[in-house]
Amino acid sequence: MKPDSRESDKIRWGILSTAGIAASAFIPALRESARGELVAVASRDRTRGEAFAQKHAIGTVFDDYDSLLESDAIDAIYNPLPNTMHAEWTIKAAECGKHIFCEKPLAMSADEITAMTDSCNQAGVQLVEAFVFLFHAQTLKLRQLLDERVIGDIRSTHAYLNFNIPRPSDNIRLKKELGGGGLLDGGVYPLTFTRFVFGEEPINVQASCFFDPQYEVDLRTSAILEFSGDRHATIHMAMDGQGGPGAAIYGDKGYINVPQPYHPRQDAHLGVWTPEGEQRHPSDGGRYPFTPAIDHFHEVLLDGKQLAVPATNALGTIAVVEAIFESARTGNRVTL
Q: What is the mean pLDDT of the chain?
């Protein structure tokens, strides 16, 4: 759906809240993109909103989210709100005719995801989940290498994301009531990456989680996912460790190392090893990891291009998340 013709023919963006991810990831990428402009931010704290707007040169500050959504000066919104608020405000945005770029995970349940996608379809607006690596040149190159069977048939994969949140802390990731926990925060990255690599959904899951007794959220999760053809994947996520992100894909003729699988930057690359030797493929994705996804979203909105990854892809991720928690709780392998 193309917005009404305007002199600049750019997508006019608003941000719901002054979340840190908006400042560190979304705003720099939007400004690297040629076809969008950031015109407003909404904050329930006027002082905070004005400080955010001044720091990032945003022209308009709204005192509440509804006012931003109702504004005729906004075409699309970035929703970086806590996980438990994604569905509510995405649906409200759709009802106001706004396109939505929503942070991951898209929602807390399959029912919420379905309600969000149904609302967007009914309103004729686009919804994308901010797994930005799925739109990145590095990931598209990886898909090409896998489809060309450069490493032969995929046998197994390993994907991980580790970082450390000191405790005690008021970090949102430690707040159970806001959808906190390691799996719903960082763990969905290796899950979604793994599903992308195999190009299908896992058959079953065996998992273990460590829950912090004070915050009642999962700090550490490890899981084995079985795919068709006796193929397996391991994933690991920790909010109380070190090591950062990474992934490796093992085939019967070689392997691919992916040092920056989820937020590739300019120095990112794919390392490919086969018996014929080693190859290095640069990411070619621009300065900021979000930029290719935002550029693609602009093409969808302004040029009528089909969205490369539909929001319903989130249903596969949340199904695995629920299976991991069930497996960790019962100690049993869970069939999907």
A: 95
pLDDT tens digits along 132-149? 999 999 999 999 999 999
Q: What is the CATH number of domain 11-130?
A: 3.40.50.720
| Distance (Å) of CA 182 to CA 28, 29, 221, 320, 334 | 26, 25, 7, 14, 20
Strand partners, 227: 231
User: Active-site positions?
Assistant: 104
Banded pLDDT at 64 (limits 50, 70, 90)? very high
Domain residue extents for the chain? 11-130, 133-288+317-335
**Which one-letter amino acid corresponds to residue 28?**
P
Distance CA 78, CA 40 (A): 11
Helix (H) or strand (E) holding 326, with range, is: helix 314-330
Q: Compute the average pLDDT of residues 6-14.
A: 81
At 6 the pLDDT is 45
Q: Per-residue pLDDT tens for 32-46?
A: 999 999 999 999 999
Within 8 A by CB and 6+ apart from 72, the residues are none
Domain 133-288+317-335 class in CATH: alpha beta
Pairing status of strand 154-164 against strand 231-238: parallel
Cβ-contact 258, 246 below 8 angstroms? yes
| pLDDT for residue 117 | 98
Q: DSSP for 65-119? A: HHHHHH-TT-SEEEE---GGGHHHHHHHHHHTT-EEEEPSS--SSHHHHHHHHHH
